[in-house]
Structure formats: structure tokens, C-alpha cells
Amino acid sequence: MSTARTIPIWTSIDAPPGGWSKAPDAALDVAVVGAGIAGLTTALALLGEGRQVTVIERAGIGAGETLRTSAHLSNALDDGYRALARQHGDDGARLAAASHAAAIDFIESLCRDSADGCGFKRIPAYLFSHDGDVSVLEKEVEAANAAGVPAELVGAGEQAPPALGPLARFERQARIDIGAYMRFLAAEVHDAGGRFVQADVVNIEGGSSCRILLREGGPLVAQSVVAATNVPVHETRATYLKQAPYRSHVVAGAAPANLADALYWDTADPYHYLRLFRDGEGKDWIIVGGEDHKTGQHDDPTAYARLHDWTLERFPDAGPFTHAWSGQIIEPVDGLAFIGADPDNDNVFLITGDSGDGLTHGTLGGLLVCDLVQGRDNPWTGLYDPARKPVRASGEWLRENANAALQFRDWIKPAAIDDIDRIPLGGGAVLRRGVHRVAVYRSGDGRVHAFNARCPHLGCVVRWSSEEKSWDCPCHGSRFEAATGAILNGPTSEPLTPMEWND
């Protein structure tokens, strides 16, 4: 089951090569929970060390968030090197640049072994001002160079359409067909002896021998466990108060004629990002993303139309647009992912907090965790340590957690709708029944699907998403399927509780 109803341009992968294996009765060596780019990179790296690896996945390969990306590969990071140097110091900024560059190198080396190259290509990246303020670009060029990322300022129209204005150019970035890459990565894991088990993990308990609790069957026992599930679904206090969930929207259509093959993004907040993509039939597409908002907040079905308009203002010959989708981005308060040993669970390792650079964060996360599982030192350990305290980001930490706390007001606010007949077919709303809040969805055939609107994670009231036809928690980003209440995104480990609804 995909995490959303919208359909990306990338080809989905329902099952791994060789199919799913039965959950073993014997103890496992290393269990990797999640078959996205982070989980499969970890698995492949550990298999190369001679470890026995079992990948446990609820849905399909990359079905969480990996196949909902726009597939930029960049070490010109989203938060910018001025911000990263403030948060992590000059040395931290340089380590961040080097680690993401290493991730791109790793992906490139694998793609060389694939039959079609997985659409990988080294290209430049361009940052442009949304309001004409060139000083922002100049400062970012200076900070990027100081961090070891070659960058320069180029004039309007010199290397990109004049409508974008002056640009900061970053060298040796890349793009990829993420569907093709995930299919190849899964095949590499399979060929190296990795085993794939389809199961729904509801908790991970650390210790000298870790336990993996499943919704059906189990539990499984493993020497080490890697939680590569976008956000941890097990009991850990290491990360969820230090990162926040956002939905980002993406559209794709026929490419304009005057756009060079490169990565592009602007300085707006939320920012826009775009790239070109050539599919297997030789058709060129433009992929444009942005209009981000916090998950469960500011539901706005016009986001895709605004992306169309933004693109056509700059590239009038783009389109028509035929694809539109959204994905979940986990924003750490200090701009870098949380990767490493779970401080609350022995022999459990975390990869979470993609910060809009999920493909490179996931890849470097697999390489870093491999070293930690093997007991080796890694120069990136301290930078990404899940136990770190983001002292220099205390303002952002307070803002995000205050925002989450405010969402509990939904328990005392009056319901926007008090009559189920006012809910359109294919729509949903949260109604009040006494002290309870009830999440009600009316499917296309008129049937009513009702659930306790209390998110099982920490008790916020879920809200209806008209974009993805899902129930989304506005506090920490858990998401649930409209008609069944099944989990789409963590950190919850439990689905919504069904309720009877009788008019």
C-alpha cells in the first residue's frame, strides 16, 4: 500500500526480485526495517561485510517516501551552507558537504554496473532568487565554497533562461530515475544474499538480543536492527521532538524547449525546485515541486494549480501537466538527519530526518550505519548522532514544538461540520459526538467509514486531507488511510480505532 493516492511519475515496485520470503523462525543477524533507499543501501553495505541481512517491509520497494521524491541528488543542501555553518560550525558544514558528496559517488558507482545507468547523470545545480535579491546568492556562494562545494555566481541569461535572473551555480550535482535505481538496488541486495520479508512492524525493542514485534505473527529476534522507516515507529525519545513533518507537492509535464539539464531551486520559503527527466521512451519531462506545508495543517487542494502557474510564468511552453503527487518530508530542527545508534535502545540504529535531501541522506545513512554496526569509526558519527542536542537551533525547536502543542486545541474547538450529510462523496470530516471526535469518510458508493479521531501516537485530533484522501495528524505527521484507518506514515505504530456511526 502506497503512502498516498496520488501517483508519481516513477514506476512502482510491488515486490522484490525473487518475491517475499516467509518470516524465519531462527534468530536474525541484522534486520533492516524499511525497503526504501536508506534501508536497501544499509542492507547492501552490510551484505558486503559478510553479514546476513533480512529486510522487513510493509508494502513494496520504495513504497514509503523514496518513490515520492523528485529525485534530485545534491550536496548543495536545501538549508544552505550559511545556515548549516551557524548550526554545526564550519567543520560541521564541511563534513555535511563531504558526506552528501560521498552519497552521490556511491550511487554513481552502482549505476555504472546497471544495464541502463538508472538515468544517472552529473549536472550542475542553480539557485536563483525569488525576489531579485542577489546578495543572498552571493553569500551562499561564499558559504558553499568554504564548505568545499565549488560554486560561482553567473549572470542572468548566461546559462539558464533570463526569467530566472542571476544564479548561484554548484558543480557536480546529479539526477536519477529513482524507480529504475530502486529496482536495481533491490536486485543487488537479492543477488548478494539478502532476504525480503513482508510484514508490518509495530515496535522494536533493543537489548543484547533485539525483538521486532509484528502486527501479525512474530516476534522476530535479531542481533542488530536498523529502523529505516522515514520516522521511527518504535518507542524512542531520540528524534520526534527534534523534527517536524511537511507535505511537499510535485507536478510533471512536457518539458519546455529552453531549459538546460540541471537542478534548479529558488530562495522562497517554502521554496520551489525543478529538474528535467527523460523517460524510457525518450520523452522529456519537467518535474516541479514546492508549496510545502506542515502535515495535517493548511489543507490546500489548489497547491498543484499554483505549481502549474508558477512554472508557466517562467516557462510558457511547458506542459501539459499529466502527473501530480505529494510526499512527506521530515525536517530536523538543525537541518541534518538523525543517523546512528538509538540512545534509548541498545543495538538499534536510526535513519530519519531527510530534510528535503532524502536520497543522499538515506544513502549516507546506510554507509554510516554499516560502519556503526560493524563497530568501526566514521567521521560523520557526531554530526548525525540522534542523541545530539540542537542547542543552536533552540528557537526553531521551540517554534516547532509550540506549533505541535497548539494543535491540541482541536479537542475543544467546535466541529466545522455537524451533519454527516454535508460530507460529499469521497470526502471526510471530523465530527463531534459528545466528548468524542469522530473521523468520518464517505466513500464514493455512499458508505460511511468512522474512526476515533484521536491519533494513537500522542492523542492529537486527526484532520482530513483533500489532497491525498487521508487522515493526517497535525502534531507529528502520522497519516491514516481514509476507509480503513490503516497506517500510511508513522510515527504511530497503531491504526485508527473504528467506531460505529448510526444517524
Protein described:
The chain has 503 residues and is an alpha+beta fold. The protein is built from eight helices and 24 strands. The protein has helices at residues 37-47, 81-112, 134-146, 178-191, 303-314, 358-373, 381-384, 394-406, and strands spanning 28-33, 53-57, 72-73, 121-128, 151-154, 167-175, 195-198, 201-205, 210-214, 220-227, 243-254, 263-266, 273-278, 284-294, 321-332, 338-341, 348-352, 427-433, 436-442, 448-452, 463-465, 470-472, 479-481, 487-489. The strands form four sheets. Strands 3, 4, 5, 6, 11, 12, 13, 14 and 15 form a nine-stranded mixed sheet that branches. Strands 1, 2, 7, 8, 9, 10, 16 and 17 form an eight-stranded mixed sheet that branches. Strands 21-22-23-24 form a four-stranded antiparallel sheet, with no helix packed on it. A hairpin with a 6-residue loop joins strand 16 and strand 17 (348-352). Helix 1 packs parallel to helix 6, helix 2 (81-112) crosses helix 3 and helix 2 packs across helix 6. The protein starts with 27 loop residues before the first strand and ends in a 14-residue tail after the last strand. The model has no long low-confidence stretch (mean pLDDT 92).
